[in-house]
Predict the structure.
Amino acid sequence: LCESCCGLRMDIDETRSASGETERSSVSEHSSRSRKERKKKREKKERKGGRKSKKKADDIDDTSKIDPFAKYSLGEEEKEALYAHLKPPAEEFTEEEQEKLRQFKEAVADTVQKYTYDDWYRRWLVARDWDVKAASDMYRKAMEWKVREGVNDILETFPKTRFHKLCLDYWPNNILDVRTKDGFPVVLEALGQIDSHFLDVIPKEQFVRFHIYEMELALWHNYLDSKERRVSAGSVMIEDLSGIGWGHYYGLAVSALKEMGAIDNDYYPEGLRKFYFVNAPGLFTALWKIAKMWYDPNTISKMEIHGSVPVKTLQAIIPLDELPVKYGGTSELTLPVPCSVKSLKAASESEHERHFKVARGSTFTEVVKLEKGQTFSWEFSTKSYDIGFALVEPEPTSPLPAELPRFPSHKHLIVGSHTATQSGNYKITFDNSYSWSRSKSVRCRFFIDLEEHPRSEAISES
């Protein structure tokens, strides 16, 4: 996970000037010539009981140690110009804040936590005006939600579903290639390019899950930045509303955006540094009066709505070589152009989708052969009422319960995956044994390493 996420990071080194490359080359050459002499000196000093000496700047022999954020070092005048538009990165904690941070850590010590660094905790305290009790209550609810919804490993699990690729191919955004002048993330998105009826193809709950995946990805990169720089500032969001019209106010899409707004408020506080709506039509400005009720006042205070592109503002906060041309910069970066909903639907259709009934008081089992390391994923729904479901390993480590876990598959599509820990025949079981009055109509699709799995011959009903 760490390697795959880190691999997505912007390769800042490639943007350095030729002079910087020459300097690194001479440093490496100098280090190579004098490595033996330095080694002898260190050994001699250590033998005398001295501590290991620290390397001086001109002794560096590992070019990977060169600061990747050197490009974003600013002079005082540059900082003053930038911070006229953006809030500066968080400074060191005051003594009072340090004490409240200590109390907060004690209050949440028993929760399941993925991150434990101070700037992460700061977010929750700031979100509740440094009220330790309110912040710890908020944090506890969020961590319980993450465990309940499987969010802590979503960076690993969601890409194993077909909806990850569908969303990536369709959604016009970029979260990794642009930074502010002081080196913090900028997210570009073009909501006006999408057809909101794409939610007729991608289930709403899977699109919301894609949003959570992207929030966790941004959080991971924020952690990497904070770990390396000992400071964090949140992300700048630029939302291009060119093309927004009445057709975008589709009920399902509005419902999804409202749900995502609630998730951001409750579970990802203080991750936003600034939000710019650009090319906003009058229609959006009018409807925003209603939509802003989904967000807390502190988040609203960070948002600006512009009828065009605020070129001077964007040029003041983003390096020109990273700012796209259409926003006043020199970068050739463009956002993906979404395919049509018709094309999206065609890509999503399957000749292997199964339809069958599980009789009342019975189970339906299919066998699939998996090799160790293969990922098996599934999605299913029922026409009405819930159903039990489980994927059983060839040699289960514990006996199956009399009744399998039941899922509300009549309300939304159930999606999941499992990576085989051993080779053998796995049993896919749908359980309706608890119902003595209703049969269940099931629609399902199965995948092995994201390749659709055709119907198996090894099927049984009981």
